[in-house]
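::Amino acid chain::
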Amino acid sequence: AKEGNKLPHDDWVSSVRAPVSGQSSLLVTAAYDRCVRLWNGEECLAVGSGHSEAVKEIALHPHRSAQPEGKVGKKRTHDPISNFMFASASKDGSVMAWAYDDATLTIKPIGCVKQHLASVDTVDISPDGALLATGSWDKSVKVFSWDTVLDQSTPADKKAPLAAFTDHARAVLSVRWSPTQEGVLYSTGLDGSVKTWDASRAQLMGTLAGEHAAQSLSAKPSESKSADLLLTGGSDNRVRLYDTRQKNVVKTFTGHRQWVYGVTWLWREEDPNTSNCFATSSEDSTVRVWDLRCPSAALITQDHLHTDGVLDVTYCGQNEVASGGKDNKTKTFTIERNVT
């Protein structure tokens, strides 16, 4: 246990992200204990509280401030970190924006929006940092200006979205911005379909059919960068690959024994790994690494990291993967370079 309230999560770790590419020891986490935390290895550097119910997902803002200068405090046990912002989505129906200040080792709320009628399970911030997208159990997808989220003069429930989409038949569980097309957003959820939206025009661009409920979604550019490759993790224990230039599933990956909760390409904007690999997490307590060329079996199965369902998995850069789950733990591992 650490000093003050900087204790480990005492509930399910629902989301994990790496704010600095290649540094898997530095992680932001969200949990069902209603808090968000920043970790340096086993040490909790800062805690953010403000949600009244479980936090379901976090999204990092792409903009970073310069690394802080000056004297390092006596209590500091880590190298200086660039101050950064992120957002969190919660079952309380709100999305909060946060800022980490390395000089004071604090996570402070800097904005909030509450425009959904039910739990907000997913949030993502556009690559240019200008837009924030949300998905909810009220079956809607909403897009907000980041500046609107930060607006302190307007009540959270009065902040109007730039666009609102209601074409999903059931709860929306994952939204992701396109890394190649400005203003294009993907969403999926319990109805199994993957929908493509033009946020600037507030229009539905297309629907990719899905037969089973999907919990998670990940997008990366195709090799030509003319389209996106999408992955979804489903309730039928399978992962599906889509190419936005095609209308149907390209490949289906089998191996997990229970619902696939998390899926992530081994790709980051600032660390564009060109491998064909991705990682998944599941209720079967495993984290697996896959190659697009081998849909029938995972390259790596990590079955000793967690003792319960693994709710999220993320790529940290530099072949490092992090995961969080129902055992209240966050774990990391490195993939051997000859694998990817």
Residues 1-5, 68-74 have pLDDT under 50 and may be disordered. The CA atoms of residues 315 and 321 lie 5 Å apart.
